[in-house]
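Most newcomers find our protein records easier to grasp once they have seen one. To make this concrete, we reproduce a full record directly below:

===
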Amino acid sequence: MRYYEGDCSRVLDATQLDDLVGEGWLDEDEFITRTGADMYVDPEPEGTLGGLSCRWLTPEEQNLTVLVLPEAEVTERLAGAFDSRQCAPSYDAVICRVARSVDGRWILASSYGRSDLLPSEDTLLQAIDSVGRSASSGAGTAEPVTRTDSWWNEPACDVFATAMRFDELAEGGFELGFYEGSEQAEQTMFAEAGVAQLCPFYSAHERMAPDEEFRLFSVVTYPGGGWMFDALARSPHVEPVDVAGATEAVIHPDGDAHGLLYATDGVNVLEVIGGPDDDFSRDVAERALAVLGSR
């Protein structure tokens, strides 16, 4: 069971969003539909913890994201990391965050974009106060998915990469790490909670063969995330694909959403992002599932 039964329309009302984001705001789904942005459903590891993440945007690049989690699911190290507004680079933009604990719920408000368009700390705290009031009156309770022995026991990314034998996929193999950007606080949080682990890879320049294609991709694992696969499989334009080790899998066709592939074993979910073609994404997924299934 998730806060607000997973319904973002119950988190903030229209008047509050006018004040916080600006008139003309749209929720993320409607914004994608109207602007023609890449249409695909993102995994929601916060839901495995009983939480909810919601985002609202305007065509003028104003935006607000609110993440609500049970306080008990946030590690002590991160719980106090955003007591004041913290801004950090994220690829070619900046993301600013503030968080508070309110009645057993940890509420993180953030905004992403150009530094001159980002809201002040007061605005982010106003968003938290508004969410706190709505949570007290109508968020309901959160019940994290019950952990079982079937949840993947994730190895560290370096061990994971070695076991997948990436040197067989490309002569030069791959480096583990971010070619651009860096791990974000939310990714760190979900990794520490054991519900999502992002492992990014890129071609090792110094070892690449002269005719080898540079590749940049990520493997993301979602232990206990099988509950969200039906929604992922309903993403626009996805097609079923056979992946050894998966009970179900879907992929966005070549050139759409960067080779995005989702696979499940019925309990957990695997995501491959950025494969240069469908065959590469499927090969990576099968190697990853073989490693995860053996642990």
Remarks:
- The mean pLDDT is 89.
- The chain has nine helices and 13 strands.
- The CA atoms of residues 238 and 252 lie 5 Å apart.
